[in-house]
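Run folding on both entries below.
>entry_1
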Amino acid sequence: MLRNVLIVDDDASMRHLLSLILKDRGYETRAVSTAEDALREIASRDHDLVLTDVRMPGIGGLALVRELQRIAPDLLVVVMSAYGAHDAAIDAMKAGAYDYLAKPFKPDEVVLLLRKAEERERLARENRRLRGELAAAYRPDAIVGTSEAMESALRQVRKVAPQKTTVLLEGESGTGKELVARALHELSPRASMPFVAVNCGAIPADLLESELFGHVKGAFTDARRDKKGLAAEADGGTLFLDEIGELPLGLQVKLLRFLQEEEVRPVGDVRARKVDVRVVAATARDLARAVAAAQFREDLYWRLNVVAVRLPPLRERRDDIPALAGHFLARHARLRPELPGLALSPEARDALLAHRWPGNVRELEHALERAVVLADGPVIREEDLPDTVRAAPARGAPAVAVPEGSLSVKRAIRAVEEQLIRAALERTGGNRTRAAELLDLSYRALLYKIKDYGLG
């Protein structure tokens, strides 16, 4: 609450009137007649808000606003202007004042303005709190994992984060690539600017260019107005390109130009505008193999692969599973506030350690969230875990069925691929997004294969 208000006005009657109005509404006030006295007052005690006239002898209200911006930038300042001093009030707001109050005014107008200022300050505090929590959540030391493989990745993150260098995050689906991308952002000088994430595999190819770079009105049938692209939205901050391996070849050329020239050209526009963006890309695909297969541009690959950080799959960091499990149980404990002190039974812990986790950390979190919801008590039992996690002996890929009467590698590969897709769809109850994660395929690639094998 803004309770301590300093009134600055050379008119004694105005100081007295404002003091009466504000004290009657519960505010603590002090009143001075000059800007010089105001500066001394601010240096000697705390105030939440300054209410100052614009025109005063000596240092005027505008100069006071500028000085307060220098010595106490978080202090809210409201300027008062008499009839004819409107332009001076506008200048004061440009110099950093929160708002202005035109004289003469009604008592309720003063109180309403202060209430608005209080709400603004409350929102600002909440924003600072949330930003602090966000920054803490995405610090590398807040990312759970002490295995050597994970520590090695996080050491790279700490080193490269302060630079504008492009980073390529490599790892299977569910290994935490977006979490690390946000850590790179939060540890950089760009932390106060936007972090914009784009899933290149989730946006239809014909819309992706417009989403990334924007468009002008009339560029295509549905372009009814100008649209700012996500690359421009990230100006000054970080652009995270997830599933970069799914980017269509035609758009790869335009992304390469964007990275080289640091400018965006909206669809249908002849002009380009400069942007200052740090790019972090992520992929679950082997991009080097995609380059060799002419599915990904080599020049773009090397432009993205300035610093590559590999995030290990969960099966390569099993020592982290108990700590991760504890972290997720604590996170989802809010779902069952009547069950304090959630913990794993020895059998449940053994099941978690035995599972191969094809969906990696994401699969582990979902399994534990489900277990928390279904638990009958504070101890998570093995039977609270999903069937796919509990069925240790049945884990792994289904047996390969060699096509009868043929040793054709191509036919065998198709048979195995179809088997795996059927098994994934069955395991996930037909959930194609989840099945794509288990198969380590993009959603788009899975839909194509389902159609190809007639499984849909």
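>entry_2
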Amino acid sequence: MKRRLLWKLVATIVIGTVLLFWLIHLLMLHTEQHMSFIAERDQGLLKEYAKKAEKYYLADDIQSLDQWIKQIEEKEHTWAAVVTSQVTPIGNSYLSEAFQESFGLGRDISWKIHLYFKENPIMDLPIANGRAHFLITLPDRMRPGAYWFQTSLLLQIALPLLLMTLISVIIYRHVMSPLSQLEKATRQFSDGNFSVRVGKSLAKRQDEITALGETFDGMAERIGQLIQTQRHLISDLSHELRTPLARVELALSWAENQNLDPQLIERIRYECLQMRAMVEDTLTLAWLDNERPDLRQETLDLIDLIDSILDDARFEFPDRQLIITMPEQAIIENSSARAVGHAFENILRNALSHTPKEEPVKINVKTVMQSYLVEVDDVGPGVAEQHLSDIFKPFFRLAQASRENHRGFGVGLSLAKRHIEVCGGQLVAENLVNGGLRMTITLPTR
């Protein structure tokens, strides 16, 4: 059946609504019927009034009867009276036995009281074997249905709200339960569990969500295969590149012994080193993106780590100035010295490569809230505003980035950003007002 879920929801809503109206109608009738009769206690009190009136009537004590009637009227704030039952037919008409048996000047106390009538009915209690009647307008305090308005609101508003909420919860659970399974599977898939599937758990529904689960399984199967293929491709590529690179390096060593052009040999060696670095960085970047490892497992001193990297930078770039502002100590818990060190090294090398000779590169480490900020400022040309986020993409290169001392392939900054993110931090770039680029590393203290 097409649109099975639609018909399920329609059936649930329609049947639930019909049952709701039927239940409200049934409860209204039952409640109204139950609340339309005088309470047993009040009926007993009215009977006591009638017996007292009967006592004075049979004793022919009219004065006491009048006083008693007056007391009742004052006590109950109502009208009361005792009247005879003499009804005389006129002409040839007569009173039937049925009339004489059911004759009453008012309503019997066991009868139903209409809750919608504003006026209180007159109650009739026969006395003296039916020869007289004790009549009294039903006192307000004895009238049934005192809470009928509140009860009707409860039945017509609160009850429908409760039942519709129940129906909504049923529909919500019916729809959201499989969607929650899909959400959980999607989260597991994004975390690297490419074998997760939901089709079997949703097969019994046989509706649109089942089709969605089958589509998800197909997508997961296809993407999983693509990712595995990519991993194998990167692994095979790295293996295949390492072998010829090793051979080229051996050939360079042989060429050096043959007194060939030193500049040409140096250029070839430089290109080989760049290719090897590119392969290693690409493998590491792919490993971080695909495996998402947890590297936050050690405590380190950020200042000691930066000092060791600065020593290497001074040796590699002796014609650059380093202006350093750092505290004596900066302890970071739950981090990775290797990841943070690799990231800072790539950022510093990038800044030194873009800074002209004899110009300074500034490194500033400071504490902000529960984080350490590491700012690396160069004196280069900066980056166009629209490309500030692009420079962290793998293999992205700006047109002006080709320099004598900088021939990278754009993997270093991408790898640095991923290393910082794996350690719970952030890496952003911004242009300085007076020219140059600032790289800001934010690392949590724990």
